[in-house]
Specification:
By secondary structure, this protein is of the alpha+beta class. 19% of the residues lie in helices and 41% in strands. Strands 1, 2, 3, 4, 5, 6, 7, 8, 9 and 10 form a ten-stranded mixed sheet that branches. The N and C termini lie far apart (67 Å).
């Protein structure tokens, strides 16, 4: 192929841009290869005085390997942790988890009264119709961002800020559960 100097320079610039675009997209490409898909993320609106909240979502692992959600971060909270509700006799208690397994080929649902992402030390209120970014940290897939919508999904999905034991729990309540944030 007989290309002029100008054509070769244009082609080289185009290839450089393509390489740059692909290298910038490598983390996203790795996410797709890891097989994780984060979906349907939401939080319940809470009164402005609520100190803590929760985020719920669905994690699909379409990959061939298990992963584990180990934490997260968001500008809406001082700390983000993985929590679950467990029965202790006749009492349901919230406990902090070191992580939540996301088995290969499975779907894991984070929902009220079950696994959830705890938002500790809210930096602003969770207001109906607003959104915030939540970064979740996985052992294999690394950090993954998702947009969380604040919406009221009805009384059946009672949130932390709406029930007695966890409605205004701070550091002291968490320590009573067996450690910081549990």
């Amino acid at each position: 192929m007989n290309m002029s100097f100008k054509s070769r320079r244009s082609m080289a610039a185009l290839l450089s841009l393509l390489v740059l675009a692909l290298s910038a997209g490598i983390p996203r490409l790795a996410t797709a290869m890891d097989g994780l898909m984060l979906d349907d993320a939401w939080s319940r609106p809470l009164p402005p005085t609520a100190a803590n909240g929760a985020a719920y979502l669905v994690i699909h692992n379409h990959g061939a390997h298990a992963d584990r959600l180990v934490g997260g971060s968001s500008d809406i909270a001082e700390r983000v942790e993985v929590h679950d509700h467990v029965m202790d006799g006749d009492l349901m208690k919230m406990v902090r988890l070191e992580g939540a397994d996301i088995p290969a080929g499975e779907v894991v649902t984070f929902k009220p009264h079950g696994l959830h992402v705890m938002l500790l030390g809210l930096t602003r209120p969770l207001v109906e119709g607003e959104q915030y970014t939540l970064t979740l940290e996985f052992e294999q897939a690394g950090n993954q961002e998702i947009t969380v919508v604040v919406e009221d999904r009805g009384m059946g999905d009672m949130q932390h800020g709406e029930h007695g034991e966890h409605g205004d729990h701070g550091e002291k309540k968490h320590e009573e559960h067996g450690g910081t944030g549990s």
